[in-house]
């Protein structure tokens, strides 16, 4: 919508990326478990909405897939600290679009936004803010019993814990190149239906797809007047921003 005000600019898809929940369970962290925790899509949305406020909530201790019930062992009896971006960002837009697809309650209360007013709309017990992907990951790593979100490349580079999600296909999946590729393969056809060459890659139905995926874009002048790249999407060092905007 921002680009309707500057019709001389066009958005051109560059890469696909994942936004991942990153968490810190304090003394009960991943050293004591074989795999990262698994969360349902709705439970993740309800955490950021503030409907789920404790790590030992039954909706976090067990999660059902199409084929099994996964138990997350040793979930601490502690309140959840939610870590969010303090700045407007494409990462937040992808994340809130996904949470809105996962939960109608989240869609009604918060909705998809580059910079939602978390304190006004979320009932989370404690909300901490970080600037940029690196700020969120740093806050999660340094804050026991917290959960936040960041692009995959930043979370992976710092070694932060990254939760698995049960996708719409009913399977617990991890964010990686392959699961993003499956989301892209399923939903990239939406680009051909768009007048603006944009598409959302959230909540794909494939059992192998990561449900919080998005495209990054270059923003270029549409005319050949010698003008070049105006603003490369800069949400991550190697990928970029959201499925509907170009700045981080």
Q: Can you characterise this structure?
A:
The protein is of the alpha+beta class and 248 residues long. It has helices at residues 41-49, 58-61, 90-102, 104-109, 118-121, 132-142, 152-158, 177-187, and strands at residues 9-24, 38-40, 62-64, 69-71, 81-85, 126-130, 146-151, 161-162, 164-166, 172-173, 201-202, 212-221, 229-232. The strands form three sheets. Strands 1, 5, 6, 7, 8, 11, 12 and 13 form an eight-stranded mixed sheet that branches. Strands 2-9-10 form a three-stranded mixed sheet. The protein is globular.
Number of helices: 8
Sheet with the most strands, sense and barrel status:
8 strands, mixed
Rg calc: 18 Å
The mean pLDDT is 85
Distance between the termini: 16 Å
Task: Give unreliable regions as ranges.
Answer: 226-247
DSSP E strands, number: 13
Structural class: alpha+beta
Helix content: 25-40%
H-E string: EEHHEEEHHHEHEHEEEHEEE
Q: What does the overall shape look like?
A: globular
Strand content range: 25-35%
Keywords:
8-stranded mixed β-sheet; 248 residues; single chain; disordered C terminus; 3-stranded mixed β-sheet; alpha+beta
Topology diagram in text:
Blueprint lengths: L8 E16 L13 E3 H9 L8 H4 E3 L4 E3 L9 E5 L4 H13 L1 H6 L8 H4 L4 E5 L1 H11 L3 E6 H7 L2 E2 L1 E3 L5 E2 L3 H11 L13 E2 L9 E10 L7 E4 L16
Parallel strand pairs: 2-9, 5-6, 5-7
Antiparallel strand pairs: 1-7, 1-8, 1-12, 3-4, 9-10, 11-12, 12-13
